[in-house]
Each structure stands twice: as C-alpha cells, then as structure tokens.
Amino acid sequence: MKKLQELLSPLDIIKIIGSDDKNITALTSDSRKVEDGTLFVAVPGVSVDGHRFIPMAEEKGAVAVVCQELPSELSTHVTYIVVPSSALALGYLASQWFDNPSRKLKLVGVTGTNGKTTTATLIYEMARLLGHKAGLLSTVCNYVDEKAYPTDHTTPDPYTLNEMLHLMVEAGCEYAAMEVSSHAADQQRIAGLHFVGGVFTNLTRDHLDYHKTFEAYLAAKKKFFDMLPAEAFALTNADDKVGEVMLQNTRAHRYTYSLRSDADFRGRIVESRLDGTLLSLNGNEVELLFTGKFNAYNLTAVYGACVLIGWQKEDVLREMSRLVPVAGRFQAFHSPKGYTAIVDYAHTPDAVVNVLNAIREVIGKDGEIITVVGAGGNRDKGKRPIMAREAAARSERLILTSDNPRFEEPEDILHDMEEGLDEEARKRTLHITDRRQAIRTAATLAGKGSVILIAGKGHEDYQEIKGVKHHFDDREVIMEIIADEK
Fold this sequence. Notes:
Residues 328-458 form the Mur ligase C-terminal domain. The protein is α/β, with parallel strands linked by helices.
C-alpha cells in the first residue's frame, strides 16, 4: 500500500481534481486488473486508447485515475490527475510503487538493432563471473541472479520492468543489464529508471512497420541516450555511421569503441575460426568462444562497458575467455557427415550479412554455404526482398522458408522475398514453405566442409501461425537430423 501523494511526487501534473490523501492498494494501466483501491493509468496505446476504459476502471474500484484528458463524467469518489503524458507518468509511478529499484542497482542499458541480446547477456555473465549477484532483462530470458523468468518482450511494460528490478534488489543483486528496444524508448517504458551507463551497438533497418521511417527509428534509439544522467557513461560504436549521432545530446560521459580506428576501447581480430576468435582488446590478446566480426564488436563493447562500470581491466580480460555464446546466437552443430549447421537469430538484412560474412571469413571463398531463411509476417515488408538478395549474394544455395507468418500467408511472404532475387540467384534458390522440410533439405544437400546457416528464429521455440504459437525449435530440428545421420 502507498499514499497517493507519495506516488505522485515525481510527476509533472497539470491539475488534480479530488483528494490526493488516499491509500492506493494497486497500480495498473490494464483495466482488467483493477480492484478496490487501484490507481488506474489511462495510456494511449498503439491500437487502443486506455482513456476509453476509465469508466470500467471506476466501476471495478479505482479510487484514482491518471490521464491526459478528463472523462466526460467525473465520479465524486475518484481523484483525477491530469498529466501531459500518461505513458511517461506510468514509468515514474511504477518506479515509485517499487521504491525506485533501479537506484539500488548499477543498471546498464544496451540499445541498437543487432547485438543487444549478446551484449547485455555477456555484461550480466561477466558480473557473475567476477563474483557479483546480477540480473538480466533480455529478449531470450530474464534472470534474477540464477533464477530464470520467461519473457515475451525485449523490454517489458513499466510495471513488470520495475517489478523485476525490485526482485533483483530483494535477491541482493548489485548489478543489472537490460536490452532497451526502440519500442520501449518510444513508448516511455523506461521512464523513471536510473542507468549508470548505456551502450549503442549499431543501427540498420528494422521495425519500420512501427516507426514508419528510419529517422523515427533512429530518434527512438537516441532518446535513451538523451535521458541518461550526467554521471552515467555512454559508450558508442564509432564504426557505425550514426554512432556519434546517438551521443549528440547526451549529458553522460562519452566513450567510443571500434575495430577500425582509434577509440577508447579498441578491438582487433587476430585469428577467426568457426569455434572461436583470438581478439586483441586495447593490445591484450584474449581467446574467445565467439566467431565473426559482429561478435568482435559485441565483445569489445562488453569489455568497454565492464571497465566503465568500474571493474579492473585485468579481471575483466581474464574472465572474458570463460564467456559462452548466447542461446540461438551463432550456435554451432556439427554433423558426422562433415558439415556444420549454424542457428542464428539474424532476422534483419544487416544481421544476415554479418553472420554470412563471419562464416565466409572462416571457410574462405571456395567453401559452400547453404542458407535457410524466411521473414516474419505482419512486420516490415520492405526488408523481405533485401534479406533474400543479401543472403543469395553470400550463399552458394538459398532455401526460402516460413518463419513466423503470424496472420499472413507464408507463400505471400516468400513471394515478397523472391522479388529481391535476379535470374541467376533464382536458379540457386529453393522455395520450401515447411520449415522442418527446408532444414532437412539443406542437410541433404550439404557435403563435407559445408556450412548451413539456419537464420531468423535463433532461441525461439515456436512458430506463430494465425495467432497461435506452435512448438518449433530450429536447434531441436537440426539435432534430430544429425542424430539420424550417426
């Protein structure tokens, strides 16, 4: 239970109608969860405006309502708090509700198109390897120290986010790492959180179904750095074309990392293999269980973030060699037939390019790559032909298949992808809608020394079809195929 006055203290309030001397027993922006004593926050959503549900919330026992616009009829039993932004207010209210847990942790946020999961997860893993209790909020799974919590979103809603951070504090965690999605920044889900640092990985085309333009997507990412406090650090990829733009208006201390030029944290690939990389970090060579230039960027960012958090360089370098790849990120499976299958979450054109380039760097120009890839339904259609074109340009064989079609027909998605292929590429491309069969076909075609890339789903263990999630795991499928080959 909290006093309404206490909860409202950090808000920018236009006006209050009614008493603010009330006991609040629950906080929610979901009218279905309202009970007696609830503070209901009416947030304008992407598809539904929460203001429509104010009367329902009042009927179910809400004693206070935070809103941007007052309802046409006011209840004498309800206190109305009018604010400029309900979404912004919800973030601060959720932080207040859980006693500002982010201020009791050293919280690092990671944003960008690709590499967020790996970078955030490895910062969390480094904290634990160095003997600290830590938490993680990521696309794959949330962790409170060792305990795992399933996740549905890259960045949860403000209430869930602060609830998880509160659990971390209760468990004695000192540090936390989290992915910060563009949706979360745009929708103010991270409002009210206190970060000790932020990391930018890269920016390429993604989520244009939501943001509409690349400029709006960039602005959403940049918003995270704009909100960092002056005492925080902001670490950016100096090799990305918008790396410096991200930090233009930040108050935080600015730092850079790079594989190509002078930077505060300089990485250099000494040797690369399918099972690892010898990486030089500020002149110190470290053997790592990761492959590819994109991972070299991720690990250089991790090194920089760990040093900026305050851990000793020597300790960080020593423990980095013990880090292991994140599930579904360049995860390798070796067949007795002599081929290697790589399962990776790459679901944007740039991510597909990065993974295929990493494979090519290792196997050389004469090696064979067979790529199995699709594209998600009800998402940015413009990237579909680009993904197919980039995959075909870097593979000897291409198999287009279903991903998560959602409410679209899989065949329509594959036809959109095929639009990116020229006549020569089409001759090297198979169109197999059934994903299991597509992977089996790739395994049949692969010879000794071949590499199969199974892209797009990575850690996901489902296919979403017509609103229903059916169990499907690329890793399980390829392991079954390899088991049958023995």
